[in-house]
Design goal:
Transferase(Phosphotransferase), domain 1, 3-stranded antiparallel β-sheet, alpha+beta
């Protein structure tokens, strides 16, 4: 794709892949700026219901205006190629930055509070992420975080026309499709439940926050099946089993509440979780 032009976008390099397509850095030759161009695979674009969902959710995301969420510019079509243009975020994925022993608790707050703020804003607009993980968060040189991939995003409003689409993070079961990344998926996501709501994102955020401070996942496993079993049946690994220094009890309580097996026992909203992190940061 490098060197190819799609409409007035000249593709410079591949920067990664995410839900619903590959992402490239491209030059907007009309506005003379570089953007991120996510190209929808042709097999998905050929399905009218999938293409309409892609456009509908892109429009919803374009309405978001938050400093910690990537900015969506437009949905484009050139011949049979459908793409999404968005802000090109400089920096490194959070997944590349987590040290083996985890970050300090202070760093946990510095990263976790803006992330929960961002997802609270998305939820307030009726958008659930469904694939929260460190690889979907960029951190720039100043330490600012941005949620970059809403490729598996789903409206939180009832929509009988919505359908699930294939993506690099999709895993299928006999019972149906499961969307997400196994290590960060809530129990209800793993079961392909029709009742997945914002509290599923809260579980995933709890796993991410645990990893930030512990340097490892709370539910270990060598394959998808082991990860599913661990998350469904076992409590998170105690911090004392993976860290030399104790984690403040108030922080541990926040993260454990996020990862309650039953959605009703988690925080009722991402905004409440964000407030809990702020309170813990000054406790």
């Amino acid at each position: 794709m490098t060197g190819r032009s799609i409409s007035h976008y000249r593709i410079l390099r591949r920067v990664g892949a995410g839900g619903m397509g590959e992402v490239y850095e491209a030059e907007d030759t009309d506005l003379h700026r570089n953007v991120a161009l996510k190209i929808l695979p042709q097999d998905l674009a050929a399905k009218p219901e999938t293409l309409e969902r892609f456009k509908r959710e892109a429009r919803a995301l374009a309405a978001l205006n938050h400093p910690n969420i990537v900015t969506i510019y437009s949905v484009e079509q050139a011949e049979k190629t459908h793409s999404l243009t968005m802000e090109l975020v400089e920096g490194r994925p959070l997944s590349d930055l987590i040290p083996p022993g985890g970050f300090s608790v202070e760093k946990l707050f510095a990263l976790g509070i803006p992330l929960t703020d961002a997802l609270a804003a998305a939820h307030a607009r009726g958008i659930g992420h469904r694939d929260i993980k460190p690889a979907n968060v960029m951190v720039n040189d100043e330490g600012r975080v941005k949620v970059i991939d809403f490729g598996l995003a789903k409206s939180l409003q009832p929509d009988t026309s919505a359908v699930d689409v294939e993506a690099p993070t999709l895993h299928q079961t006999v019972e149906g499709q499961i969307l997400g990344t196994p290590a960060y998926m809530s129990p209800e996501q793993m079961m392909a439940s029709t009742e997945v709501d914002p509290r599923s994102d809260i579980w995933s955020m709890g796993v991410l926050l645990y990893q930030l401070v512990a340097g490892c996942l709370p539910f270990p496993g060598n394959n998808d099946l082991e990860l599913f079993s661990s998350a469904m049946t076992r409590p998170p690994r105690p911090f004392r089993a993976v860290l030399k220094e104790p984690v403040p009890r108030v922080v541990e309580q926040v993260l454990l509440k996020c990862m309650s097996k039953k959605p009703g026992e988690r925080y009722p909203s991402m905004r409440v979780l964000s407030d809990a992190l702020r309170a813990a940061s000054v406790a």
